[in-house]
């Protein structure tokens, strides 16, 4: 398609068009202009209008009108998956720069994505006070289910091939060096690139397996808090990547890493841990944990690059401000540091508060939470809150299925510990035979082990189990009959286990700190 002789060709043209559109829309209602490094968004009345800048940044090409039109159509298609009802259509802009018209029959100057406006005060990057565990759980589960629904990369495509996945990482470093010429920054970039290349080599077997196992999918691609808003009844995820297929046909763990990195950058590491565990409970993708730091460095460097681009676009007399760039650089460096993982085991009968204690602990101690109730059902092909319909000692609660469940938890714990993450295994662990393999695992991997021995009066145990059963909807199916069986066979820990045990009793306000001292 030939370019319209009037088509927007420069950033100066783009700015003139935006000024014209603001005048054209002045009667539509309250206005606001949002500018990013690649687009301008005009909020006017009930609608929002997004116009792409005429740029070629290497990782995106908006340099021609036809490219921008195609990307507008892709933006509409892709964002309908997570934000239905928000993205309304693509319109041509006709008329002139000074007197533009939305729609019309004339030669198009530009194309615009028309959206339904929502309250920008709900965008989470601006409202960290809106973030709480319940919101994070909802977002993480929505992302997990989205990842399970979207298209997988075809086996014959280049998407998901290790070299293709890594190329944006190498391009990032090249682009940043072109943007930031600083003697203090140069060796830091070299160290980050060296670490990334080392990790890329170390992950040589896992990366291609991820594609074979179906984890390379057409993702959102830009999953950070600036693209999530609380609108109406729940979170709205918007503004996925349309301009570069290679940046959205990615490993689902790379997508999650972006959200986790952003939560950590915003000073909410406990919510990053919460999001990770909610996502893993939904997907069971514990193998992908080994990729997290690799992708978190990449995602931090993506944001560093964006910050550097924004700084370089400062209009004189304003001077470039590289504060945000340096903050993301420091965050990426933090992911390179070796971790010292710890293995924690809960121990206690039904109703002793194992899962409640786990949630409390994970707000302070970052760890991967492995729940026997969740993984038992996963092995049976059930969702966490599905009822198995099993009788006592039958179905998924038979001795053989219980053995399989503990073996599965052991395998997962080994995988996660080897990836450098602390693990909290949430199970009853009433028998020494169930605990012993985990002690051996910790010894094999050279990491400390800590048993959290929950001691609760029997009357309170019964009260809790009855209350939970009456409430319904819990992951655990254990009722009073199960509890009585557990209590009848209850045995204290052996003497040689006590040196790596913390006894937890109800109303102990100091226990989280004591665990953090040993496994934090």
From TrEMBL:
This is Aminoglycoside phosphotransferase domain-containing protein. InterPro entries: Aminoglycoside_PTrfase (IPR002575), Cell-binding_unc_protein (IPR052732), Kinase-like_dom_sf (IPR011009), P-loop_NTPase (IPR027417). Residues 111-291 form the Aminoglycoside phosphotransferase domain. It holds the Pfam family AAA_33. Gene3D superfamilies: 3.90.1200.10, P-loop containing nucleotide triphosphate hydrolases.
